[in-house]
Amino acid sequence: MNTIVVLLDTLNRHLLPTYGGDWVKTPNIERLAEKSVVFDQHWSGSLPCMPARRDLLTGRTAFLEKGWGGIEPFDETLPNALRKGGIFSHIVTDHYHYFATGGENYCQSFTTWDFHRGQEDDPWHSTVSDPEVPDEHYGRVRLQYERNRKRFVQEEDYAGPRTMQAACDWLESNREADHYFLMVEAFDPHEPFDCPKHYLDLYQDDYKGPLYFWPNYGDVDVPEEAITHIRKRYAANLTMIDHWLGKLLDTMDRLALWEDTLLIFTTDHGFLLGEHQKMGKNQMHVFNELAHIPMMIHVPGSEHNGSRISALTQNIDVKPTILDYMNVAIPDQVKGHSLRGLLEGRVDKVRNAAIYGYHGMAVNVTDGSYTYMRAPRAADNHPCFTYTAMPTTFRSYLGNQVQESIETGRFLPYTRFPVFKVPVSRQGEPYASNSQIMETKLYDISQDYQQQHAIQDAELEARMIRLLRESMHEANAPLEQFERLGL
């Protein structure tokens, strides 16, 4: 058995035809779905990018103890577990956050890794003089990306296509090998939504306004015609990477890899494109567009390929599933569940709930029919701490503003490794300027999937609180997390 994981960043489930979308063109994702079991109730865990990847590689939901940051010295990653089982692992990626401060030790746990430069603010193309930028634009225009994109002359030059082609080349060069793990990770369709014009032309884009391909996060700050344009730009970016995914599927056809290869296709989270009058992620509640994510699994020789599974699953279940199929012991630290029983039709459920969220914000739980967003009980969000042995975060370091308040000790119950306990909130000081994320919300997503109308139901809320408490205990949530949520 070989295993391939294909992860496209920021992939919106609700736009895919496989999940009911009716206007975005993704023929190769549909092609893959026909060969796979499609999961209808798959959910994220920790958001955004790096926290989601830590969940995937460790099989633990980590956002209750830490936000953005590197793999910890006590983390047992998927590639490390595979190595102990004698299995070679390789990652092909253009996700540049792996190689910035706060992204340490992810790729380095693989046997080998291959990084393709140029996405977003990757400090790649070097020119001392600043590139020209348009005088009028919406959203973000960043100088480093303006440098990088000058090197995208042909479609083959873009980082996403290069990543997919490199994965094809790796499979070709290792065509005689077996019992390996390959992770193929494309940053697309993550913003900036930039691709050759012929993909945008597929969507009859007639926008005439200021340049707009990189939205700001938060409340919608552009006119309606710009929202329509940015949605088409997202779609165009997705269609481009779908085209190059097709080349990977062609390679699997040519090498007859479907016969002995487990293939898992998924994402880290979605992206708001004007829904809820919001753009992006991070600065609002984790609505379904962000947390309810696609997953498809091709199991070689399975009679169930082409079917759908409605059981509740989440991202931490990917690691134990891979280890189960590759006959490698699942580490004790893993909190996810192998999905092999579901895939083989032997069980009909592996979990009662999925919890998900950003560190220090609401903690969210779903049972597949309802979503409950439990916000902090007070405006100061106190007490809240980050626990880490590696105090790096998004392009920076943790704790610089609270150095005198940092403690060290053996605070995590699943490891004896000492960690820093870094204060995130200050008692009596407002935590967030956005009051909306400090409101608890309950939605019936079986009737109101778009989460437009929060409901009041004391009995139902009590049941969801019980689910939330049970799930937080199962995840080894620090005790102060219960206190800050008023639980």
TrEMBL record:
Gene3D superfamilies cross-referenced by the UniProt entry: Alkaline Phosphatase, subunit A
A Pfam family recorded for this sequence: Sulfatase
Keywords assigned by UniProt, alphabetized: Hydrolase, Metal-binding
Record's keyword annotation contains Metal-binding: yes
Superkingdom assignment: Bacteria
Organism: Paenibacillus anseongense
SUPFAM superfamilies: Alkaline phosphatase-like
InterPro entries, sorted: Alkaline_phosphatase_core_sf (IPR017850), Sulfatase_N (IPR000917)
Domain Sulfatase N-terminal, chain residue ranges per copy: 2-328
Protein name: Sulfatase-like hydrolase/transferase
